[in-house]
Design a protein that fits this description.
heterodimer; A: 431 residues; alpha+beta; Rieske Iron-sulfur Protein; Naphthalene 1,2-dioxygenase Alpha Subunit, Chain A, domain 1; four-stranded antiparallel beta sheet; 25% strand; globular; B: 162 residues; Nuclear Transport Factor 2, Chain: A; 6 strands; 42% strand
């Protein structure tokens, strides 16, 4: 038996219903215990984070042979490295000898990894190539476990690398299902390649990880939560223009992934200029749009240029392709605490002026010092605090748009897609 | 170095700045800046040479955005700072590094505490200021707050002026 958490919240039994959907009545409720119960988190680690494909990094982070980075993913410390054979590999960052983390740098370039504790040394394929006094080991110990342990599965789609700790998992492309269409819309912005710009942001939320999954594609909260952002862009002048592009319904992309695709008044550094960018910006966008049309035809070119989307790849990888592109992933440290990693992505072949507009756009809305994200941080913290009342007020309402025709992106269908998959996996754990 | 102010003058100036920030008197704080000034907070753990042209900062405000940041923080709808957190800005190790009255550089260390809802967050690091003397008063032309931690996992955001 586990002990009760310090908040005094009684533990639930694992077969309690967490998601209650009633299609006839048009209601969709989520049990608030799903956000606070340590048993739920423990089950999530087993049946979600140990079974699903998790985003590790982008190909542009390991450009040359011998480049490596270390990163915590799904509760594991990993080494992500490009070998002398140009192959990308992922290893658990632990020495097979006594377990010390072998690589202590955030990133770098080298020909080998050496554990400083007893100087066991490994090449970039993970193979043990040297250990002091190696002749003192028996034949069995010589032959035994002495290489770095690779992550069970490492696969990439269009330069996005994911890991899976389950050797029996379906392949990445099958898992991504309809999400590949939106990865394509992102990567096709460049004729050459996309790259991570300016490193990684690491921050945290005092809130359950699923709250950030919901928030990442929740357009219903945009106006009330982020009114000060809209005040700012109004004041800036020329930062808002016509909302070009199509509003679509929230889309279920399969396997728990979902997206909202919509038009918005802000400028997009991929071919949707606003007045503040001047004639130069407009001309540059026109040129980009022309090239997109030559490559993809008018319809797809305009979709790439004008349409915004927010996508959550189950369980925890977000692409928000809005006034800038952000990749975001987040992992629970506790039921009420998560760590976030975020990046921005840009075409390698864009002009310096467009790059500047992109980064300016990013910082005014996104990131821990932006005009919007800190207020999300506060909203999620308050949700988490509110769940202390769950014995009296026990359910979240995610019903918006049920039974409506059409369902729109300001509704909550995309979150219902997430929760149905979450529930399927959690309920399956005890079936 | 030809300066009409000395380290004690600069310390008095930085302590006065800290007092304004502690009191959330942000409009008065903004008056310490020259028009056209900039305020930067690079990502935690950055070196002093980092620039927002190539690195994704937390804050890279030009003058317009800095004035808008101050306006935003004055609104009830800046939800993260309503009700206002309690802050305490500690400044030390003040050194005049280089320059003359027209532009001189000051280094200092800081610990800033932000307390709200029973949780106290600590921001620690060092500031770099570009200052100038204008009509006998010190004015800021550029302030950068370097956070000397690996990340801001615990603080989560930079919702105050550090």
């Amino acid at each position: 038996m586990s002990t009760a958490p310090s908040s005094g919240i009684p533990l639930t039994t694992i077969n309690e219903p967490y998601v209650a959907e009633d299609i006839d009545r048009g209601t969709f409720l989520v049990n608030r215990r799903a956000f606070v119960d340590p048993n739920v988190l423990s089950t999530e680690r087993d049946v979600i984070f140990d079974k699903c494909w998790l985003y590790l990094g982008h190909e542009s982070e390991l450009v040359g042979k011998g480049e490596f980075l270390t990163r915590k993913v799904g509760g594991r410390e990993l080494i992500f490295v490009r070998g002398q054979d140009n192959e990308a590999r992922a290893f658990f960052n632990t020495c097979p000898h006594r377990g010390a983390m072998v690589c202590r740098e955030k990133q770098g370039n080298g020909k080998m990894f050496r554990c400083f504790y007893h100087a066991w040394t490994f090449d970039l394929t993970g193979k043990l190539i040297q250990r002091p006094e190696g002749e003192r080991y028996s034949e069995a110990a010589q032959a035994g476990m002495h290489n770095l342990v690779p992550v069970a599965r490492l696969e990439q789609y269009r330069g996005l690398y994911f890991v899976n700790f389950d050797a029996d998992a379906v392949d990445l492309v099958t898992y991504l299902a309809g999400a590949t269409e939106y990865i394509d819309l992102t990567i096709d912005q460049s004729e050459v390649a996309m790259e991570i710009v300016g490193g990684m942001q690491e921050y945290g939320f005092q809130a359950n990880w699923k709250l950030l999954a919901e928030n990442s594609f929740d357009s219903y909260h945009g106006l009330p939560t982020h009114s000060t952002y809209f005040d700012y862009v109004q004041a800036a002048g020329g930062q808002l223009g016509e909302s070009l592009g199509m509003n679509s319904q929230p889309r279920d992309l399969g396997n728990g992934h979902a997206v909202i695709e919509y038009s918005a008044p802000w400028g997009r550094p991929i071919a949707k200029p606003v007045a503040a960018w001047g004639n130069e910006g407009a001309a540059e966008c026109a040129e980009i749009l022309k090239r997109l049309e030559e490559r993809f035809g008018k319809e797809r070119a305009e979709r790439i240029a004008y349409n915004n989307f927010n996508m959550v790849v189950f369980p925890n990888f977000v692409i928000n392709n809005i006034m800038a592109i952000t990749f975001r992933t987040f992992f629970p440290e506790a039921p009420d605490k998560q760590h976030v990693k975020a990046w921005t992505l840009a075409p390698t072949d864009e002009s310096a002026a467009m790059r500047e507009r992109r980064l300016y756009n990013f910082l005014e809305f996104l990131g821990p010092g932006g005009f919007a994200t800190p207020d999300d941080c506060e909203a999620l913290r308050l949700c988490q605090l509110g769940y202390q009342n769950l014995s009296a007020a026990g359910w979240n309402d995610i019903s918006k748009g049920m039974g409506q025709d059409p369902v729109i992106s300001n509704d909550e269908e995309q979150m219902r897609v997430f929760w149905r998959e979450w529930d399927r996996r959690i309920a399956g754990a005890v079936a | 170095m030809s300066l009409s102010v000395n380290r004690i003058d600069v310390e008095d100036f930085l302590y006065a700045e800290a007092a304004l920030l502690d009191a959330w008197q942000l409009n008065e704080w903004l008056e310490l800046f020259e028009e056209g000034a900039a305020y930067w907070v690079p990502p935690a753990g950055s070196n002093d040479e980092v620039t927002p042209d190539t690195t994704l900062f937390y804050v890279a405000d030009d003058w317009f955005r800095l004035t808008e940041r101050v306006k935003r923080l004055g609104k009830k709808n800046a939800h993260v700072e309503f009700p206002k957190s309690r802050c305490r800005h500690l400044v030390s190790n003040v050194r005049i590094v280089a320059g003359d009255d027209d532009s001189f550089e000051v280094a200092s260390n800081f610990v800033t505490y932000r307390s709200k809802g029973g949780i106290t967050e600590t921001y620690l690091g060092h500031h770099r200021y570009q200052l100038k003397v204008n009509d006998g008063s010190i004015r800021i032309t550029h302030k950068t707050s370097f956070l000397d931690t690996d990340n801001i996992n615990e603080q989560g955001k930079v919702s105050i002026i550090i």
